[in-house]
């Protein structure tokens, strides 16, 4: 006890003698508090931004899942649907430059919150036409509608025929047109998607730079990676939501569902497409709320206060402070610069063109840019119309198609993106290796795509369109082939589409064209009897038919399974080359041109791939249509029946041709890199000390590149299938 007391006494005496620097304690405690507030603030922002990325990815993928629903609801061709799909990119491009430049000077979280509100407004605008264009009307003969009156489909006398079953008179057409208020309602869908593009614009550039400015430097890449991971989860839920809504009838809650005579297997079926947009709009509003309560600035981490590299936002702050201290003469000079008369402004403007010339003078960059533009044309077109292709080629419902894409294809894409980065990290792949990996990914991906040509289904047997009434392929125009001797005594319209399935396994365009004399039952349970055209090439005895088209052949379900397996492998293979391709661009550009190069890259992808690809893919798909629907006011509506073989060759062929051309450009990139590199460069490139693009110092450049690759936007990354 005495020893311990002496030790304590000695300890306290020493403490009283040695002076204590209390300011250091204060600075340490304040630093710890600042660090805690910084970490807490950035993590809140990280969670909010991740939710926004989820919301925008969900709404974007949901739009892809409703392409066929919108086409049928508004009776428009695929080419016009492509214009609607591309309007998102147009809206994004309208303000991307203003947001990227001026957004860093303003309150970035609130700008993101405002963008979420605009995005939700656009999403609600897309759903609005459903509540103003009346109930959905599909073509059905009156006998298939629940009614106590029974009509004969094949009527010998036109006086017995209801007006809706004959060619409409001019007065009927005029009356119908006055009621057809929703004939141009698709414009609201286009404007809503345009508004979605405008609202989505500030999320990526301002959100990522905010994290990069205020996060601890070693955590920035991890945080951005978390945001991108959540963004990939969004499309999964988007397509699953599309699958759920496609099961529900479009007018659910407004009509008696027992009176509906079509099923989800019919080509005229339209699901509750609008319901998903309301859900997506609410999610966008909720995602934007936290940003209105976040501060404009967060405390800078201690590791970054003494950093020589200042953030983009801090540069603007410095410029603003300098502007406040400028003299009257300098302010006048700035005013002249705003008018475009100052020599300094013109000198800055003149620097743009040498930078552009330097960028496009880099053969690796320009060749890879061309390869990416062409490849994204093929991938965006393929992704946009993949649901339609599965529905028409394999006879699947919209609900099942969206479920398969969301649950199988998108996880394969996410795993492919992750694998590409993991391969580069594990094997220390340099620039030349990245070019090889990107080329190999594209080559084997499109090689697998080639095998899908053999995994299609034959055309369904439709009398007068794919087969004649005598069992042979029609030799004349299909409009004339719809009429035959067996239905010559009937007063039928060639414009109707009310398919029935005969006992012979052949689909007939309508009960009238099948020569049916009587019917029994109502709604989905209607059965037609004494059909003179059914079974004419098998037996002389007339047969019966039921409502709805016949199913595809027995081999089609097996082909669909093969298609899914190859499609998943192809999606994974093509996605592996995404990250190496970006690394290739970043490491072959001079450091001061890196941001400019990525901006030009994103702009080119959006303008030359995101906008035109859905349009000309839609035009090409429209050429394979065998039977068009007709609008009430006249004119061509949505396609009712496609030529399966022609659709397969057009859809896959266009994708494969574009992919092949992009592969040639990738080969040229590899050739240029090999020509510039030496064996020593390749070994040094693998160790991360020097690349193969002719620059001298690369060590710091690689660090910046790895951080930058996480923050750049990969166009259509979330929905590449």
TrEMBL record:
Name one molecular function that GO assigns to this entry: bile acid transmembrane transporter activity
Chief subcellular location equals: membrane
- What does the UniProt entry say about where the protein is found? Cell membrane
- Record keyword Repeat present: no
Ordered alphabetically, the record's keywords are: Cell membrane, Disulfide bond, Glycoprotein, Ion transport, Lipid transport, Membrane, Transmembrane, Transmembrane helix, Transport
Which chain regions cross the lipid bilayer? 40-59, 80-104, 110-132, 220-250, 270-294, 365-383, 403-423, 435-455, 559-586, 598-621, 650-673
Recorded coiled-coil stretches: none
Q: How does it sit in the membrane?
A: Multi-pass membrane protein
Could you provide one GO biological process annotation from this protein's UniProt record? monoatomic ion transport
- Name the reaction it catalyses: 3,3',5'-triiodo-L-thyronine(out) = 3,3',5'-triiodo-L-thyronine(in); L-thyroxine sulfate(out) = L-thyroxine sulfate(in); L-thyroxine(out) = L-thyroxine(in)
Q: Which SUPFAM superfamilies match?
A: Kazal-type serine protease inhibitors, MFS general substrate transporter
Where's the Major facilitator superfamily (MFS) profile domain?
45-671
Every copy of the Kazal-like domain together lies at 480-535
Classify the source by domain of life.
Eukaryota
Its GO CC terms are: basolateral plasma membrane
List the InterPro entries.
Kazal_dom, Kazal_dom_sf, MFS_dom, MFS_trans_sf, OATP
Q: Identify the PANTHER family for this entry.
A: ORGANIC ANION TRANSPORTER, SOLUTE CARRIER ORGANIC ANION TRANSPORTER FAMILY MEMBER 1C1
UniProt lists the family membership as follows: Belongs to the organo anion transporter (TC 2.A.60) family.
**This protein is called what?**
Solute carrier organic anion transporter family member
The species is: Sylvia borin
């Amino acid at each position: 006890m005495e020893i311990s007391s002496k030790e304590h006494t000695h300890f306290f005496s020493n403490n009283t003698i040695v002076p204590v620097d209390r300011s250091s304690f204060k600075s340490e405690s304040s630093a710890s508090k600042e660090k805690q507030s910084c970490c807490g603030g950035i993590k809140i922002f990280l969670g909010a931004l991740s939710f926004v990325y989820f919301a925008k990815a969900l709404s974007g993928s949901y739009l892809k899942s409703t392409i066929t629903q919108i086409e049928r609801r508004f009776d428009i061709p695929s080419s016009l649907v492509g214009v609607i799909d591309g309007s998102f990119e147009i809206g994004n491009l309208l303000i991307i430059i203003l947001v990227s430049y001026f957004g860093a000077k303003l309150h970035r979280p609130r700008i993101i919150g405002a963008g979420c509100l605009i995005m939700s407004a656009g999403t609600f605008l897309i759903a609005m036409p459903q509540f103003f264009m009346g109930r959905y009307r599909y073509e059905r003969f009156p006998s298939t509608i629940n009614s106590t009156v029974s009509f004969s489909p094949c009527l010998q006398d036109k006086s017995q025929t209801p007006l809706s079953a004959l060619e409409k008179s001019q007065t009927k057409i005029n009356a119908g047109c006055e009621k057809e208020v929703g004939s141009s309602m698709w414009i609201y869908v286009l404007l809503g998607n345009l508004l979605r593009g405008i609202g989505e614009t500030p999320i990526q550039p301002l959100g990522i730079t905010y994290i990069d400015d205020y996060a601890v430097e070693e955590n920035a890449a991890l945080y951005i990676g978390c945001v991108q991971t959540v963004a990939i989860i969004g499309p999964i839920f988007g397509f699953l939501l599309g699958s759920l809504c496609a099961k529900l009838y479009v007018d659910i809650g407004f009509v008696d569902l027992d009176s509906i005579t079509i099923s989800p297997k019919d080509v005229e079926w339209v699901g509750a497409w609008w319901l998903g947009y309301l859900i997506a709009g609410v999610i966008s509003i909720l995602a934007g709320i936290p940003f209105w309560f976040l501060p404009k600035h967060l405390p800078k981490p201690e590791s970054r206060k003494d950093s020589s590299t200042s953030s983009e936002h801090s540069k603007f702050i410095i410029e603003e402070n300098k502007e406040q201290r400028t003299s009257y003469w300098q302010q006048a000079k700035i005013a002249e610069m705003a008018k475009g008369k100052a020599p300094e402004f013109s000198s800055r403007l003149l620097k743009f063109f040498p930078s552009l010339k330097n960028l496009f003078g880099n053969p690796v960059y320009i060749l890879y840019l061309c390869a990416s533009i062409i490849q994204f044309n093929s991938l965006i077109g393929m992704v946009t119309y993949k649901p339609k292709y599965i529905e028409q080629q394999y006879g699947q419902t919209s609900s099942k198609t969206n479920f398969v894409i969301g649950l199988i294809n998108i996880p394969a894409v996410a795993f492919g993106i992750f694998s590409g980065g993991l391969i580069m990290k594990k094997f220390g792949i340099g620039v030349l290796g990245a070019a090889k990996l990107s080329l190999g990914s594209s080559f084997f991906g499109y090689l697998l795509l080639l095998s899908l040509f053999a995994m299609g289904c034959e055309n369904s047997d439709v009398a007068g369109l794919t087969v004649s009434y005598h069992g042979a392929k029609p030799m004349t125009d299909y409009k004339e082939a719809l009429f035959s001797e067996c239905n010559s005594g009937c007063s039928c319209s060639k414009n109707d589409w009310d398919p029935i399935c005969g006992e012979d396994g052949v689909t007939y365009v309508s009960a009238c064209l099948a020569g049916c004399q009587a019917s029994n039952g109502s709604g989905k349970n209607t059965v037609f009897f004494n059909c003179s055209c059914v079974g004419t090439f098998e037996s002389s005895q007339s047969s019966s038919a039921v409502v709805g088209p016949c199913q595809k052949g027995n081999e089609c379900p097996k082909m669909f399974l093969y298609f899914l397996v190859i499609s998943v492998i192809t999606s994974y293979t093509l996605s592996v080359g995404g990250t190496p391709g970006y690394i290739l661009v970043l490491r072959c550009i001079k450091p001061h041109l890196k941001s400019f190069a990525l901006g030009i890259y994103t702009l080119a992808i959006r303008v030359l791939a995101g906008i035109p690809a859905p349009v000309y893919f839609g035009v090409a798909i429209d050429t394979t249509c065998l039977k068009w629907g007709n609008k009430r006011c006249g004119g061509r509506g949505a396609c009712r029946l496609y030529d399966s073989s022609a659709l397969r060759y057009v859809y896959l062929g266009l994708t494969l041709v574009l992919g092949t051309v992009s592969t040639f450009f990738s080969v040229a990139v590899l050739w240029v890199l090999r020509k510039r590199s030496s064996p020593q460069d390749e070994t040094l490139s693998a160790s991360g000390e020097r690349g193969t693009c002719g620059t001298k110092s690369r060590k710091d450049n690689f660090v910046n590149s790895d951080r930058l690759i996480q923050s750049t936007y990969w166009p259509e990354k979330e929905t590449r299938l």
